[in-house]
Design a protein that fits this description.
alpha/beta; Rossmann fold; 30 helices; 740 residues; 17 strands
């Protein structure tokens, strides 16, 4: 039977370890009973995928994984949680649970759905047939991004922990006091709530699509001569600007025009092939650095700047994953194929182009390419000498808004970075951006800082109301403050410029982000202080304005980590590395979270990636040393510590102290005295005293792998209770539902 929602293969997918069905066919019995209960719950039959093959995926071959890939596309995923299910190496875990999670995170509904009553639930509906070890529970919650709330089918009595059978309804001996029929009914009702919510969401989406179609029809009936397919010309009064400025500004608009033409033309009958490929929107895209193929190498800054502008604008669209500039810039002058780039960046589409100037003429090419088969879905060449560029940009913004309205986070037009009144100011802004991002961030050299500062200052001088130039200069000062001897002075300059930027353009995500910086390490009465509530307020506003900007997501992740909200911090860090997959720091951040949760195998995966991208990443080396110490692989730990020592002797001493303590050597106390050192040395009295005097975050105390032995000590319980109170207060204080 067809699924309830088009585009999905099944309504329900039942996932389990086949060994749990071998003994008495419990899963088969459960599925049959569930089908009967669903018939009494829904007016139409639901489709259920349930693989009864007894060989666990034909020994877990790739063929089975490929065949399951489409079947995973369902509305509700039901894992049967047993003693054996939470196994990262099992077929069911890797190719079913994690595969569905990844699918749900990228489809039209998301992993979590809002029910009609206003509550939120996950599309992963766990059934538990055994009491789980805490480590299995932690693993499941980490991977499914939520607290485990299962429907239990467990029979327990003295020394017994097994699945509840249908014929054992109301057995007196069952200490769980569960009724099989009631539990089946609970599952059916949960499924009903999820299905009803997703079908309502689809109905609303269809309604929005009809609205957009009507708007597009109005555009087509407009008798103005602004049809994008024929090009745009505005014979208004033109500013007198240099040829270089014309080239710079014109190319920026033309590239945005090319992108707008592609998006807009998808709605027209003549571009049915492109529309069929994308559906409502491409799911992910990498905007590769536009190539400067003119004879003037000085225009390199401009081609990079235009690339960044397109990425920034696209990042404000909720349903489009856009790879960050740091990752795409690594493909400058690359010889790799589109397929290789797409695989490395995990995107479905690539936009690439070039700019050539010859005298007064400008030639711009732009191509949209499908990664799967490297087919060119859309391409266009533009030959122009336009100069009234800002009018063109306004028209392009309007077309993008009308074409993509149903993809925006709010149903407003997308906010492009504010246009300056003076075209020359835009040129200086792009130059400053290029120097800051591609040179000073890496070199920390004073000449690079001074050159970037000069360019941003010139942009502000030419256009005193150019909000983004103020934000960019504030951002530069924030970077420089970490290396400057007079840090306080640059932080004050940062705060002043950020305030001006926010006053000029309070809705720009860049203005909001640098405004948040002003409450971090700011000086109050000559003391460095942090104002968490204000930081969170402005960061959250920036995130809502540009949800796919990796800088915003990473800054929010670091903020959540500082305040002990490691679950949300991990979620944001994982989002950040999908947007910036070639970020060593991003992979280290995720790996560190998994280490702190006790998931050493996953930590190693991310830390290996971080070091492959940046072998001298001190934080990744230290975290990897920690993993090896906890694992008892002291030889490998020593090797990582040796790599840290020439880079950061202090960090090397800290990790060496932990290494000595783990092997029972009290010499470690000469290097480090903290809860980790004491616990590794089995000095519980000292460890608990230390934690009482130096409070730690609740999730750190609860999950860190070194503190496992300490957690069984009853004296730690008051410390945990106090930490939990702080954690729960922070959950409320820094909730995303607090958005204004």
């Amino acid at each position: 039977m067809p699924p309830t929602v088009a585009g999905h293969q099944y309504d329900i997918f039942i996932s389990y370890r086949h060994k749990d069905n071998k003994y008495d066919g419990w899963v088969t019995e459960f599925v049959n009973n569930l089908r009967n209960e669903l018939e009494a719950t829904f007016k139409r039959d639901l489709s259920i995928y349930f693989d009864q093959n007894q060989h666990d995926g034909i020994h877990e071959t790739n063929d089975v994984a490929d065949s399951l890939r489409d079947k995973i596309r369902c509305l509700v995923f039901i894992p049967i949680l047993s003693r054996t299910y939470c196994d990262p190496e099992s077929f069911a875990w890797k190719h079913e649970l994690l595969a569905f999670r990844d699918h749900a995170l990228s489809d039209e509904f998301g992993l979590k759905v809002k029910l009609k009553n206003g509550n939120v639930t996950s599309r992963i509906l766990p059934i538990r047939i055994h009491e789980l070890d805490q480590s299995d529970r932690n693993l499941f919650e980490a991977e499914t991004k939520g607290v485990l709330r299962p429907v239990d089918f467990i029979y327990t009595s003295s020394g017994v922990n097994r699945p509840l059978r249908s014929h054992e309804d109301e057995p007196r001996e069952n200490q769980s006091h569960t009724f099989y029929r009631d539990q089946i009914n609970k599952v059916a009702i949960c499924i009903r709530d999820i299905v009803n919510s997703t079908t309502v969401s689809q109905s609303e989406a269809n309604s929005r699509r009809r609205e957009v179609k009507d708007e597009r029809s109005e555009v087509n009936r407009d008798d103005r001569k602004d049809d994008i397919a024929e090009g745009i010309d505005h014979p208004k009064q033109k500013a007198r600007v240099s040829n270089l400025t014309k080239v710079s500004i014109v190319a920026g608009a033309i590239l945005l025009l090319a992108l707008a033409y592609f998006v807009y033309s998808r709605s027209q009958a003549s571009s049915a092939a492109v529309a069929a490929t994308f559906g409502s929107a491409p799911s992910s895209i990498a905007v590769l650095p536009f190539v400067n193929i003119s004879n003037d190498p000085e225009q390199e800054y401009f081609s990079d700047g235009v690339t960044v502008q397109i990425i920034t604008d696209l990042s404000q669209l909720r349903d489009l994953k856009v790879i960050a500039r740091a990752s795409v810039m690594k493909y400058k002058k690359t010889s790799k194929s589109i397929a290789e780039i797409g695989k490395e960046l995990n995107v479905t589409h690539v936009l690439e182009g070039s700019v050539r100037k010859s005298g007064e003429k400008l030639r711009v090419t732009a191509e949209l390419i499908s990664v799967s088969d490297e087919s060119h879905l859309w391409s266009e060449d533009y030959n122009t000498n336009l100069s009234d560029i800002f009018s063109v940009q306004d028209e392009v913004s309007l077309k993008i808004a009308k074409s993509l309205r149903h993809h925006l986070q709010n149903e407003d037009q997308p906010r492009m970075l504010a246009r300056p009144s003076n075209p020359k100011a835009y040129e200086h802004y792009l130059k400053g951006l290029f120097i800051h991002d591609s040179r000073y961030q890496l070199s920390h050299r004073l000449p690079d800082f001074l050159e970037a500062e000069s360019e941003f200052s010139k942009a502000i001088e030419l256009d005193p109301k150019y909000a983004i130039a103020y934000a960019a200069l504030a951002d530069l000062y924030d970077t420089h403050s970490w290396w400057a001897s007079d840090r306080a002075n640059y932080l004050k300059l940062r705060d002043s410029l950020a305030t001006i930027s926010y006053r000029l353009d309070p809705k720009s995500f860049y203005s909001l982000l640098v405004k948040a910086f002003t409450f971090t390490n700011n000086y109050v009465q000559n003391e460095l202080r942090e104002q968490p509530d204000s930081i969170f307020k402005y960061m959250l506003m920036a995130y809502q304005r540009s949800p796919n900007d990796n800088t915003v997501t990473e800054e929010l992740s670091l903020f959540m980590r500082r305040h002990g909200l490691f679950d949300k911090a991990l979620e944001l860090a994982e989002l950040s590395i999908t947007l910036d997959p070639l970020s060593s720091n991003g992979h280290n951040l995720v790996g560190g979270f998994h280490f702190g949760n006790g998931n050493l195998a996953k930590a190693e995966v991310y830390l290996q990636k971080a070091l492959a991208l940046e072998p001298d990443n001190v934080n990744a080396l230290a975290d990897f040393a920690g993993v090896k110490i906890v694992s008892g692989d002291f030889k490998a730990a020593d090797q990582f510590i040796d790599r840290i020592r020439p880079l950061n002797p202090y960090r090397a001493d800290v990790m060496h102290a932990y290494r000595l303590a783990a092997s029972g050597q009290k010499d470690a106390l000469n290097l480090r005295r903290d809860e980790i050192t004491y616990t590794l040395l089995e000095m519980n009295d000292e460890a608990i005293d230390y934690l009482k005097k130096n409070p730690k975050d609740y999730l750190y105390l609860k999950n860190h792998p070194v503190l496992t032995k300490l957690r069984s000590d009853s004296r730690l319980q008051p410390v945990l209770a106090t930490a939990r109170e702080v954690y729960e207060q922070s959950l409320k204080r820094f909730s995303f539902s607090n958005a204004q």
